[in-house]
Structures are given as C-alpha cells and as structure tokens.
Amino acid sequence: MEGTPVTVASVSEVGPGTVALELETPADFDAKPGQFVLLRAEPDDEVLSRHYTLSSSSVEETFELTVGIDPDGNLSPWLADLEGGETVHIEGPFGRITYAGEDDVVAVAGGPGVGPAVAIAEAAHDAGHDAVVIYQDDEPAHEDRLEALEDAGATVTVLDESADEDLADAVATHREDGQLYAFGFDDFVTFVADAIDDAGGDPDEALIENFG
After folding, report:
1. In this structure, which topology does domain 4-94 adopt according to CATH?
2. In angstroms, rounded to a whole number, what is the distance separating the alpha carbons of residues 154 and 150?
3. Residue 98: HSE in the Cβ half-sphere, 13 Å Cα cutoff
4. In this predicted model, what pLDDT tens digit does every residue of 92-112 receive, in sequence order?
5. Please, are residues 119 and 105 in contact by the beta-carbon 8 Å criterion?
6. Angle between helices 114-126 and 143-151 (to 10 degrees)
7. What CATH number belongs to 105-210?
8. pTM of the entire predicted model
9. Which Pfam families does the UniProt entry name for this protein (predicted)?
C-alpha cells in the first residue's frame, strides 16, 4: 500500500456520528492546522482512500483527524470501529491554507469543517491570540473543545443548519476580528463568501477550504 504507515493510537466519539482518529506522528511529518492528509486503509482486502483535514493544533507526538461516519460508507464505519494499535497509511500533508500562530483568527465551520476550525482556534489561543469560532451544524461535534475555548476567552457561536440569517450576521459581525478561515462543503463556503461580500468585505482575503 502506498504512503507512510502510521499506528492508530486511539479512536473516540466526539459527537453524533463523528469520531476523532488519533494517529502516532511519523518521523519528518510536519503539518500545520488547516492542512490535510490522504488516508489509505484496507478493510475487507480492498484499498480505500479519503482526504481528512487535521483537527489537532499540533503534531508533536500524535495528530488527530475528525471522521464523520457515513453508515452506508465502506471506510468511515471501519475507521470508527478501530480500537487502537492498527495501521493505516497516510500521504501529505497537503494544502496551503494553514495557521502558523501569527494572527487573531475567525474560523467559520460547516459540518465537518469544525475539525480544522477548532484546531486553528486552539493554535491561536496557544500563541496568545484571540479566536472566534462560528459553527453551523444541527448535531455539533467537539463540544468539549468548543466549551474549553469559550472558557479560555474565545468567542464561540454554534448555529442550527437552518439559521442562515444568523450565520450571515455572525460573519458580518466578526469578519474584521482576525484572519478569516472557512471550512465546509461547497454550499456552505459559498454562502460564507457571499456573506463577507454583502457585509462590505473582500472574500478573496478569506482563507477558504472547499470540501467539495
């Protein structure tokens, strides 16, 4: 199998239908929050691969991927059932949308975009900067980490999927509070870009990762 073999350190539930896959960091793996990897595994003797964005603020000893479980899928349910000690393969890191600890941040997330958004907010806080997280999902994940960020002084707004007007208002309110990041599927990030434009900002200045 192609890629670098890595050991699964643990798998934990972090929300409805969502798990955090913690992997042991291989030698020379240097990734920043916002980047992603290609994960390969071989359930049932079939090699499968998916891209996952890092959801940990550092990669010193381990790093984390947040995996949404598709009940009809053939990879994510298998990953969710791992117990630790298994081996998967990774390639990367990939991606130019990163956070290196230099600015205040506004991280806007839709659905699975919460992983990198939380990682960037935590990295900003660790670097002594302010962080805003705006997260839209009917079944939020990483609530413990979001609460910890809020307790540490971050501004955290969690919205229902139907609350598009509130999402636009939150983007307009906080778009100048730091470097704006947006992570999510196409409809979501397009909405965020339009909200920035409607509020008088320049969406080209935002760092947007479209999950397709």
Report:
1. Elongation Factor Tu (Ef-tu); domain 3 (2.40.30)
2. 5
3. 12
4. 999 999 999 999 999 999 999
5. no
6. 30
7. 3.40.50.80
8. 0.95
9. FAD_binding_6
